[in-house]
Amino acid sequence: MYSPEIIERFKNTPTPFYYYDLDLLRQTLDVVQKESDKYNYNVHYALKANSNIEILEIIQSFGLGADCVSGNEVIRAMECGFPAEKIAFAGVGKSDVEIDIGLENDIFCFNCESIPELIVINELAEKKNKIANIALRINPNVTANTHHYISTGLEENKFGINRWELESVLEILKTLHHIKLIGLHFHIGSQITDLDDFKGLCLRVNEIQRWFYERQIVVKHINVGGGLGINYENPKEELIPDFKSYFKLFNDFLELKPHQELHFELGRSIVGQCGSLISKVLYVKEGVNTKFAIIDAGMTDLIRPALYQASHKIENLSSRVNINDRYDVVGPICESSDCFAKNLVLPKTTRGDLIAINSCGAYGEVMVSQYNLRMAPKSLY
Ligand code: LLP
């Protein structure tokens, strides 16, 4: 993954920084395109995972649509070449200004999460004398085996419209003449590695579709969200996720009505493995039962370990010493949670060594903060 030439470039770049392997991104997109084309599926890229301009321009060049969760993401997607008619706008709390951005640009669809939101979109569309396309985000109440912070498909979560509300939603929709129901939207969570969870989603969608069918409603678009996980433990063994089995599963288990189109919103599985956070060891400090490798990247550069107890594979790219030792790899921020790994076996590590934290392409750079007045890390391609 890191050729000697790349490591030479790393040595000459101020740390910490994000490194993106754009060839790997293109190879991943090739597979996404090939496997989804088999079934004529529409894949939208979830910008929230990484909204870096270079990356977005490559993704849109493969013909993907965009899944946005803020007005600024809608604008960024359009600036990077995603056509408005392929942009879905989701989120539980869209502001009026953000809804107006979507309306003015005639985006593909608003994924709506509540009755009050439907009413506001209708009002704002009426003011502009437009009809907004909407999909109802329905809470499928399906469990996904993932961290509870990133599981979304249960009734206790804030997301989506619950099934017991659907009857009243349909009643209200009859009175809203500036919105048009074109789709149903679902999402069960993120970093899902057990494909059976998606099978559970398919069966639930079939059931919900039957409920609508009994009421003479067949929408044109079904959107099953994102969530396909990546291999954080051994990234090199699986640099490209198993999109073949993933799309096949939907083809096998999801019953589409004639002329219905299926949409996906994938973030992590597309960009996760192409990015790494590169950092340098500042100090190696003796602790009571451990050694601390204190690096110049912190939780401000990559918050996933501190926030979700996420584990990323860490490598020492400099050390050639064949003696292994154990280290707690920590950052410089004044918080105990600023820790990337505990008791990790690394070759003997010393000041100045280059450290790579792998699988950071998704939810890495986008979640950078300026806590402690830290500078945002730059990117290298
Ligand atoms: N669609 C919806 C409605 C979503 O909420 C999400 C992610 C996606 C699609 C894209 O999911 P993906 O394919 O990337 O799993 N910051 C967390 C992840 C938050 C995910 C939020 N929603 C992390 O670092 O793990």
Provide keyphrases for this structure.
single chain, 381 residues, alpha/beta, TIM Barrel, Lyase, Ornithine Decarboxylase, Chain A, domain 1, eight-stranded mixed beta sheet, eight-stranded parallel barrel, 11 helices, 30% helix, binds ligand LLP
Task: Please characterize this protein's 3D structure.
The strands form two sheets. Strands 1, 10, 11, 12, 13, 14, 15 and 16 form an eight-stranded mixed beta sheet that branches. Strands 2-3-4-5-6-7-8-9 form an eight-stranded parallel barrel, surrounded by four helices. Helix 8 (195-214) links the parallel strand 7 (179-185) and strand 8. It starts with a helix and ends with a strand. The protein is elongated, with a radius of gyration of 22 Å. Helix 2 packs parallel to helix 9. It has helices at 4-11, 22-37, 53-61, 71-79, 96-104, 115-127, 166-175, 195-214, 243-253, 268-271, 304-308; strands spanning 17-20, 42-46, 65-68, 87-89, 109-112, 132-137, 179-185, 221-223, 261-266, 275-286, 291-295, 314-316, 324-330, 339-347, 354-357, 378-380. The mean pLDDT is 95. The chain is of the alpha/beta class and 381 residues long. The chain contains eleven helices and 16 strands. Helix content is 30%, strand content 22%. It has two domains: 22-272, Alpha-Beta Barrel (TIM Barrel); 273-380, Lyase, Ornithine Decarboxylase, Chain A, domain 1 (Beta Barrel). The chain binds ligand LLP.
Uncertain residue segments: none
Share in β-strands: 15-25%
Rg value: 22 Å
Structural class by SSE content: alpha/beta
* Overall body shape: elongated
CATH class value of the largest domain:
Alpha Beta
Total helical segments: 11
Count up the domains.
2
- Which range best describes the helical content: under 10%, 10-25%, 25-40%, 40-55%, 55-70% or over 70%? 25-40%
CATH architecture of the largest domain: Alpha-Beta Barrel
Largest sheet: 8 strands, mixed
